[in-house]
Amino acid sequence: MTDPSLVAQTITISHNVAIAAASAFVFAGFMLGYAIGWHQRRSQPAPDACSDYHIGGPLELGQPPAVRDSAEDRVRRSHS
Questions:
Q1: Are the C-beta atoms of 59 and 67 separated by less than 8 Å?
Q2: Is the entire prediction scored with pTM above 0.90?
């Protein structure tokens, strides 16, 4: 007959190994997702200084965000 404490110890060890393996897979998934997101952000071209992305240049600390103009407003102002 097997010793009940040995069975309990084996179950506890295998349970801990299963938890460690699952944690490693979750951690690897998060790291892979972060790496993919980082690569996608790095592979996008930098925004043009004249684009709608940041009209008026980079924001200084404490300044409110720039008001976005539509293309029609900019054309209307340039021809007036």
A1: no
A2: no
Amino acid found at 23: S
| Whole-number Å distance between alpha carbons of 66 and 58 | 9
φ and ψ of 31, to 5 deg:
-65, -40
User: Distance between CA atoms of 72 and 80, rounded to whole angstroms?
Assistant: 12
Torsional sign, CA 23, 24, 29, 30: positive
DSSP per position, 28-80: HHHHHHHHHHHHHHHHSPPPPTTSGGGTTSSPPTTPPPPPPPPHHHHHHHHT-
CA distance 27 to 33: 10
The pLDDT tens digits of the residues spanning 16-31 come to: 999 999 999 999 999 9
